[in-house]
Amino acid sequence: MKRFVAIGECMMELSPQGDLWQMNVAGDTFNTAWYARALLGPDWEVGYQTALGLDGFSDRVLDLMQAAGIRPLVTRHPSRSIGLYAIHLHQGERSFSYWRSQSAARTLADDAATLASGLAGADAIHLSGITLAILPPEGRDRLLGLLQAAPGQVVFDPNLRLKLWEDPQTAREVMTRAASIADIVLPSFDDEATLFGDATPKVTLDRYLGLGASEVLVKNGGGQILARVGAESLALDLPRVTPLDTTGAGDSFNAGYLAARLAGQGAEAAIRAGHDLAARVVRHAGALMPMEDIRA
Ligand SMILES: Nc1ncnc2c1ncn2[C@@H]1O[C@H](COP(=O)(O)OP(=O)(O)O)[C@@H](O)[C@H]1O
Ligand SMILES: [Mg+2]
């Protein structure tokens, strides 16, 4: 059995439905694990590594993982619960409010042995800048140290959420360290322009290639995807759709791309697979599509 492990934070999500709120479960790396589970074959185990509490909302997340066929690699904190975020829509633009500063997931790297055992034997490990942002400095060091020594492929999506970082300089330093350990880096251009001041997607591509990654794909909303995969350079203009809700676009793209690559497909086919999935996800409300619809 081959193993894909994603690591990070999964939360309760509140999305506005008129005057009411709909509650779902979501979180960037969790979304990627969800779509990867749908797309990878039965020869792959997909695990999700995080920390939850002992409360009913934490149980709900665990039940969802089990029902989806995602192996929970979960420690349970005795007093903390899971984080919560709410989506605000203002003139079509989305913004987020977070209640996650005391979430159980912030302790996911507290115990070195538990952290190592979840990641052990993984053929591919996926993390994001959000995974790193929520950890205390010693947790970041512990996780990055394990990834540095991991024999499998390390996949990193910087996925900037400035509010989660103590300051932009720390975000730049930690993201750069993570990317220099990663084999595959999957940034989105708007994040990189914000944090690093990149003027063009080419600047982003070259910066991450310079840190040693062998595969870098620069996502850019519905715009051109610029990539270097091994010796192959690609610039793909793929069909743009009118989005209904862009939540989960980057996360599902990552899963579509990775599932195709892990199944042995070439770079262009994998980018198209990632884009096709993400283009469906943005026309769907919420981060997660039902498993059966993803495979359809
Ligand atoms: N309007 C769109 N039409 C088609 N595909 C889209 C659209 N917006 C996003 N995507 C797909 O989702 C991917 C990620 O989008 P991006 O906005 O860069 O990520 P994020 O969700 O992390 O902000 C893009 O590379 C593209 O494949
Ligand atoms: Mg993103």
TrEMBL record:
Superkingdom to which the source organism belongs: Bacteria
Keywords attached to this entry: Kinase, Transferase
Domain Carbohydrate kinase PfkB: 1-292
Entries under InterPro entries matching the protein: Carboh/pur_kinase_PfkB_CS (IPR002173), PfkB_Carbo_kinase (IPR050306), PfkB_dom (IPR011611), Ribokinase-like (IPR029056)
Single Gene Ontology BP annotation: D-glucuronate catabolic process
Cellular component terms per the entry's GO annotation: cytosol
Single GO MF annotation: 2-dehydro-3-deoxygluconokinase activity
Pfam families cross-referenced by the UniProt entry: PfkB (PF00294)
PANTHER family to which the protein is assigned, alphabetical: 2-DEHYDRO-3-DEOXYGLUCONOKINASE, HEXOKINASE FAMILY MEMBER
Protein name as it appears in the record: Sugar kinase
Native source species: Stagnihabitans tardus
